[in-house]
Amino acid sequence: MSMIFDIIASAGLWAAVLRIATPLILGTLGALLCERAGVLNLGIEGIMTFGAMIGWLAVYNGADLWTGMFVAALAGAVFGLLHSLLTVTLGLSQHVSGLGVTLFASSFAYFTFRLAVPVAGTPPTVTPFQPIAIPGLSDIPFVGPAFFSQTAPTYVAILLAIVLSWVIFRTPLGLAIRMTGENPHAAEAQGVNPMVMRYGAVTAGSALMGMAGAFLTLSAFNSFFPTMVQGRGWICIALVVFATWKPARALLGAILFALFDAFQLRLQTMLGGAVPYQLFLMLPYVLSIVALAVMARRARVPQALMQPYRRGER
Amino acid sequence: MRFERREHRPLALVITAPLIAIGAALAISGLLIAIAGAPVLEAYWLILKGAYGSRLSATETLTRATPLMLTGLAAAVAFRARLWNIGAEGQLYVGAITVAAASSLLFGSLHAAIQIPLLLVLGATAGMVFLLVPLWLRLRFAVDEVVTTLLMNFIAVLLVSMLIDTVLKDPTAFGWPQSQAVTNEGTLPKLLSRSRLHAGLLIAIVLAFVVHFIQSRTIFGLQSRAAGLNPVAAGFAGVPLGRTLVIVAAISGGLAGLAGAIEVMGVKGYVTTDLSPGYGYSGIVIAMLANLHPLGVILASLFIATMFVGVDGMSRVLGVPSYIADVTVALSLLTMLVALFFTQYRIRR
Q1: Mean pLDDT of the A265-275 span
Q2: What is the ipTM of this complex?
Q3: Distance CA B293, CA B183 (A)
Q4: Out of B137, B147, B323, whose CB is closest to A114?
Q5: How many other C-beta atoms can be found within 10 angstroms of the C-beta atom of residue B209?
């Protein structure tokens, strides 16, 4: 018992929580934005992979870190446009299109990486984002090192959750997006163009997914390697349901999830070889499934989610 | 410009759609090959040569197509009933590890005539059970099975990794994490000497015809299609939706589990965590290229196998990263979706 307490009482754990949570926050916000407009974006896993690769590659080739983040967001947006073209303009199955985008984006990422970086013994690295201590706040004992000594993208991610929450629930634009996700026919009757809303939401959401990936290679780690996203995208899709399509809850859910992950990582090192490490690695996926099972019936799904909208067709 | 629904789908277009899709995917990949600085036509010629240029390579391509046919069928059966089983990869792994465990620990030198059928049934059952979990979550808690089957793929590989590190570890593998091997009696017979081609290919082809028969000639086949096309209407027409989905899941998971079982019993002999280079995910592409038709799956899996077997030689000669095969396969899924759209709609100005 004291062991568990020791883990929870360490500032290192809480610092790790926000670090682990950041890509989940960005990815979940991205997926949430798409789904609020009525489009499930299963391209997330591949878009994160591509964002991780292209952001890293830009920095590796001399761009500064923020340019890397921007390039990743831009690439994400392009894949978002592709997904919109398939699911909004053509109204194809959002499941299959999304998986197609994931397969394409990830294989294209590996291809580009291999082409740009010759095979080497150790993967080449870049200098990642450094932690920024927020003046004043970071001097508070425990809380300072735990929460106020993160890298810049972490602060940006938290800020984005707040901004997105405001946009979705407090602005006309947010209302239009939500209407499109609930009932595109009614939205159109109100003078909202559902096509534009869906294109916009999916493109912007996918840009966030690209940034989520870039955080992995530009802040959490400093190099790119295949399969590094490790299902984080799918976990984000589960987190959207867990968050009942609310950005503030997405922030909370991602942090809760990261807390669990950071906790099991430390428990794993403490227990050593007594329990197979694979059991610990399974936990995030099991947890996501449990979260889905608990929340799926309670959550109020956007009513037009996964329904293609064609003007004049019912 | 707008799209207008066609009165009926022109048969010629439906049949040529996969060819158009593959052609478009190859054209876009060709652009990437050119960017990589290699001659495009020569690259494709080398891929073809690598896949069929010799007796050995041709048998390798057929060997590679075998698990792909089964995962393709698994996806096709499920998708037709709108059961989004994206978990073939995981089901393949549990099928594989079940077979390795049963043969090495349980059956030993049990006669092949009994052991092989038993192993095939066990492998299929493992895959089935593994898919029934997400299906149960869908029916009981309304959880979208896409996400759960995807997440369970990661759980499956970790489960296999744990087992081959502990109870199923092969003590003679110099500490390398691999499972104990399937015994000689549990190994599928070879179809041709001096090749890896094994009886699994025949099993896969026969199963494609069996699935085709079930879907086109039985009441259950009709019900599963109806459940996919319009579950509400099917429900009113008296189709038992829950039961139909359970059977569809059993068939789909079983086929994917069988893919793993056959790969271990026919080719690998033992299980490692890199047993499958994404056979489960390629199965989705195959199912779509086949337009969910079981016999189309046979042809589509040959295309995918050609790309994956042929690319290595091309990559060695021209220096184009072998990931180009994955890119082409993924692109063919996207182009197929678009091609299928135009079998249903026409452009009106």
Answers
A1: 79
A2: 0.95
A3: 35
A4: B323
A5: 12
Give how far A237 is from chain B: nearest CA, Å.
7
Q: How far is CA B20 from the centre of its chain?
A: 22
Cα of A197 to nearest chain B Cα, Å: 18
Give the residue among A294, A308, A254 at the shortest CA–CA distance from A29.
Answer: A254
pLDDT tens figures, A13-43: 888 899 999 999 999 999 999 999 999 999 9
- CA atoms in the 13 A half-sphere facing the CB of A226: 15
Give the SS3 label for residue B189: coil
Main-chain dihedrals φ then ψ at residue B66, nearest 5 degrees: -60, -60
C-beta separation of B19 from B300 below 8 A: no
Two tokens at A76? Answer: 């994400």
Query: Which chain A residues touch B331 with a CB distance below 8 Å?
Result: 104
Among the residue ranges A27-36, A225-234, A263-272, B215-224, the one predicted with the least confidence is A263-272
Tokens matching residue B3: 């799209």
A52 contacts A228 by C-beta, under 8 angstroms: yes
Per-position b or e across B135-144, b if 16+ CB within 10 A of its CB: bbbbbeeebb
Name the amino acid, one letter, at B198. Answer: H
Q: In this structure, are residues A25 and A157 in contact, taking their beta carbons and an 8 Å threshold? A: yes
**Which pLDDT value is given to residue A94?**
95
3-state secondary structure of A196: helix
Q: What is the DSSP-derived secondary structure letter of residue B183?
A: P
Q: Which residue of B has its CA nearest to A280?
A: B158
| pLDDT score, position A1 | 59
- CB contacts of A103 in chain B (<8 Å) are 281, 285, 326, 329-330, 333
Contact call for A111 and B151, based on CB within 8 A: no
Q: Does residue A278 contact residue B165 with C-beta atoms inside 8 Å?
A: yes
- B159–A278 C-beta distance less than 8 A: yes
Position of tokens 């995918």? B304
Residue type for position A105: A
Residue type, A250: A
Q: Which residues of B touch A238 (CB under 8 A)?
A: 147, 151
Mean pLDDT calculated for residue range A71-76: 98
The CA radius of gyration of chain A, in Å to the nearest whole number, is 20
- Name the minimum distance, in Å, from the CA of A151 to any CA of chain B: 29
Question: Do B74 and B283 meet the contact criterion of CB atoms below 8 Å apart?
Answer: yes
Question: Which of B130, B143, B308 to mutate to probe the A interface, most A CBs <10 Å?
Answer: B143
Judged by CB atoms closer than 8 Å, whether chains meet at B162 and A108 is answered as no
Return the residue matching tokens 């600085």: B37
With tokens 């180009």, the residue in question is B324
Residue A9 CA, distance from chain mean position: 28
The CA–CA distances, whole Å, from B44 to A33, B21, B41, B48 equal 41, 16, 5, 6
Query: Which burial class, exposed, middle or buried, applies to A40 when counting CB atoms under 10 A from its CB (0-12, 13-18, 19+)?
Result: buried
Task: Using DSSP, state whether B336 is helix, strand or coil.
Answer: helix
Phi (first) and psi of residue A304, to 5 degrees: -100, 15
Q: What is the residue whose two structure tokens read 């390398």?
A: B176
